[in-house]
Write a structure and sequence with these properties.
The structure is a single chain. The chain is built from eight helices and five strands, in the order H-H-H-H-H-H-H-H-E-E-E-E-E. It is about 50% helix and about 20% strand.
């Protein structure tokens, strides 16, 4: 049974509620807030995973073996071509997602280390799916084509192979003249006549065809002529 003191306290509380016209918050408000927080958290996890996949895509698709054509040493090359823009976004989204999780209704119940490990596992799985479905490439190339400023903050293999002065050229073959000569349009819409050396280096079973995109190592000559000593497909063996 309640004693007189408990009854007095309840009466005082009810009197204050009546006096200040305090209305209890409906349960649906808490439910909506909780739903919103979990939806926001899920969205952040997906976006973080896509950003992670773009980072991995840029690293895998980067032709590290030709750094000597555009940089004085490997350390300088890494310093210049590291995608700081996406790394910063990745870290910000990770921290924000961690903060949002602490605001969920059930967040306090879970052990922090296990929760972070589980969250990173989810991000890793979604990242791999995004990477191999081509979403990372699609997002990167869409931004690259539609936002000119993106080219100034992200240096990818397009920047590396747009160095004909240093012996690197890339683009799409638009016409085959003969077995050793073809026309190539680079990614800045400049037309080149490419001639293969006698001892040309190419991957086994790789065939020069109209319409394909390629990477070329060689030497530039006047009149938009480029003598190629090495020709490679634009994409790597993994399809990146």
């Amino acid at each position: 049974m309640e004693n007189n003191q408990d009854i007095d306290i309840k009466n005082k509380i009810m009197a204050e509620i009546d006096k200040d016209k305090i209305c209890p918050t409906p349960k649906w408000c808490f439910a909506c807030k909780n739903y919103f927080v979990w939806t926001l958290l899920g969205t952040l996890i997906i976006l973080t995973s896509i950003i992670f996949s773009i980072l991995v895509f840029l690293f895998i698709s980067h032709d590290w073996d030709v750094y000597k054509y555009v940089s004085s040493n490997l350390a300088q090359h890494i310093l210049v071509y590291t995608p700081y823009f996406w790394i910063l976004f990745f870290l910000v989204f990770i921290l924000f997602a961690n903060y949002i999780f602490t605001k969920t209704k059930e967040g306090y119940k879970f052990e922090l280390k296990k929760t972070r490990l589980f969250g990173f596992t989810i991000i890793l799985v979604i990242m791999l799916i995004s990477l191999f479905l081509g979403m990372a490439r699609l997002v990167h190339e869409t931004i690259f084509e539609n936002i000119p400023q993106y080219d100034y903050v992200i240096h990818d293999k397009n920047n590396i192979w747009d160095n004909h002065d240093n012996g690197l050229l890339s683009g799409q073959i638009i016409e085959i003249i003969d077995p050793k000569t073809f026309y190539l349009e680079d990614f800045k819409n400049k037309l080149w006549q490419v001639k293969e050396q006698k001892d040309i280096k190419m991957p086994r079973n790789f065939i020069i065809e109209k319409g394909i995109k390629i990477k070329i190592i060689g030497k530039e000559f006047p009149g938009n002529i480029f003598i190629a000593n090495t020709i490679k497909p634009w994409k790597t063996k993994l399809g990146f």
